[in-house]
Design brief:
Mean pLDDT: 92
CATH superfamily: Response regulator
Low-confidence stretches: none
Largest sheet: 4 strands, parallel
Distance between the termini: 37 Å
Shape: globular
CATH class: Alpha Beta
CATH topology: Rossmann fold
Strand content: 5-15%
Number of helices: 6
Length: about 200
C-alpha cells in the first residue's frame, strides 16, 4: 500500500484528500519525488550499526511541529532523545496547532522549547533523523554533524514515506496525519534501536 494516490473522483474531494493526507499539492509532489531521490542519493544517509545507537535526534526546520512531536512522543515510550531545528531560535514553544494535534493523540507538547542547530550538542551514539532529504543535505554540510549517522524518520513509518511534509500553517487534518506517521515511525525506532532506551 503506497502513501500516494487519492482515489475520489470529485475535484473538490481530491483536493480535500490531498490537503488531509499530504498537506498541499506541493507536499504530494515532494513525496512522490522523494522515493527515487532517496534511492539515487544513498550518500545523503549514513546508516549506523544499530547496536551503537544510544540517542535518537529528531531534526526539522523550526523544531515547533514535526521534530517537537517526535521528541516528546519518543520520550513518552522510554527513548533517549533530543531534537533541534535547522532554522529556528532558542526557547520558543511548539506551534499551537501542533500542540492541539498532539493532545488529540495523547502527547503533551506544552513544555517543549526549541533548540537551534547551533545550540545542539552532539555526542557519540547519536542517530540524526531528518524529515526531508534537503535537511539531510544540510546535516551533511555541517562540519560539526557531518560524521554523525543520519537517516530519514519517515523510512520507519508504515508505509515508509521519505518526505514528511512540514505541517506548519496547513490543514489541521494534515497535522494529525503527519503526527500519526511520526508516531508509528517512533514505535518502530524503539524496536530497531533498543540501545536508545533511556536508562
Amino acid at each position: 500500500m503506497t502513501a500516494l494516490a487519492p482515489s475520489s473522483s470529485s475535484p473538490s474531494a481530491k483536493l480535500g484528500a490531498i490537503r488531509s493526507r499530504f498537506g498541499t499539492t506541493r507536499g504530494l509532489v515532494r513525496l512522490a519525488l522523494s522515493y527515487p531521490q532517496a534511492a539515487l542519493l544513498p550518500q545523503a544517509m549514513r546508516h549506523p550499526d544499530p547496536a551503537s545507537v544510544r540517542r535518537l535526534v529528531f531534526v526539522c526546520h523550526g523544531n515547533i511541529c514535526r521534530s517537537a512531536f517526535a521528541d516528546v512522543a519518543a520520550r513518552a515510550i522510554g527513548l533517549e532523545v533530543a531534537s533541534f531545528g535547522l532554522s529556528t531560535y532558542a526557547d520558543a514553544p511548539a506551534h499551537p496547532p501542533a500542540v492541539a494535534a498532539a493532545a488529540a493523540l495523547g502527547i503533551d507538547l506544552a513544555a517543549h522549547r526549541t533548540t537551534p542547530a547551533e545550540d545542539f550538542m552532539p555526542r557519540p551514539g547519536d542517530l540524526l533523523l531528518a524529515m526531508e532529504l534537503r535537511q539531510l543535505a544540510r546535516l551533511a554540510a555541517d562540519p560539526t554533524l557531518a560524521d554523525a549517522p543520519r537517516s530519514l524518520l519517515g523510512l520507519w513509518a508504515s508505509p515508509p514515506v521519505p518526505h514528511l511534509h512540514d505541517p506548519f500553517g496547513l490543514d489541521d487534518a494534515y497535522m494529525l496525519t503527519c503526527f500519526r506517521r511520526i508516531e508509528v515511525a517512533v514505535r518502530h525506532l524503539k524496536t530497531a534501536f533498543p540501545g536508545a532506551a533511556a536508562s
